[in-house]
Amino acid sequence: MIIIKTEHVIHNMSKDNKPVAFCKSGDIVEFHTLDCFNNELLPEGTKCGVDNKSIGNPATGPLYIEGAKQGDTLKVEILDITVGTLGVNVIGSNCNSLSEKNLKFETKRLAVEQGIAKIIKEISVPIEPMIGVIGVAPAYEEISTFMPGNHGGNMDCRQIKKGSVLYLPVFTEGALLAIGDIHALMGDGEVGGCGLEIEGTIKLKVTVIPEVSRRAPAVFVDGKWMAIASCSSLDEAADEATAMMLSFLVEEVGLDSYDAGVLLSLCGNLAVCQKVNSYKTVRMELPLCYLSKFGYVPY
Questions:
Q1: Within the chain, what is the greatest distance between any pair of CA atoms?
Q2: Cα(79)–Cα(163) distance, rounded to whole angstroms?
Q3: Residue 159 and residue 220: Cα distance in Å, rounded?
Q4: In this structure, which topology does domain 225-289 adopt according to CATH?
Q5: Above 90 in pLDDT, residue 294?
Q6: pTM of whole model > 0.90?
């Protein structure tokens, strides 16, 4: 198994990044990741904005997948996510969603023990580890790992978890996959601007699907197909995710556009992944059980 450790991190996704590891289609790879603060806020007494470098979420990689080329799709199966024993959460009045509440800006360290995080005095919650940043090199100029886009990146989609299958468009030779920003917990929307940020290890399988082109990421998990869109506003992202799901139903499943529209209107569900970045991310979900009569099976 190929292992990529945390001495190999990037803060921008770019086709000019030099790969730190190579694999073949079908290989299993393990990524070790830092938290989004480069693990610099783990020591007691450290403060966000003072003791950490704000240069982008550290993403481990990039990984070169042999045979991947522009116009292909990269299938990423998330086999396992394990996390550390201490997470960091930063919350305060700097978050737009909470700015009117005059919250005190605080950096909190929360222990994770036996799959449980004690988030406030009276409440302990089972963790639900997910990947905040996962993506390939974009088509043109470099993009910060703070940002989401058609290449993936900082989507903060909590459905990218153990057992999920992520489909990413490939824009450059080798794809150049990079991963980071695990959250032990995060609610849809990430309204406080921060999840329970934590270091960890991600085991996955990468497979090249040749000559199958996607315009943006999609996820299959828990029996649902999800189209993910990132745009400058929530309305634009919602419209784009819906349009991508409609295209999926027409072009890949074989429905006509009217029936696809009816199915989405009655059975599709929009959800906000994150609203804290300058580009917002929304997903459209549809249970694939409705498509069984059409014989559709994901790649």
A1: 59
A2: 6
A3: 9
A4: Endonuclease I-creI (3.10.28)
A5: no
A6: yes
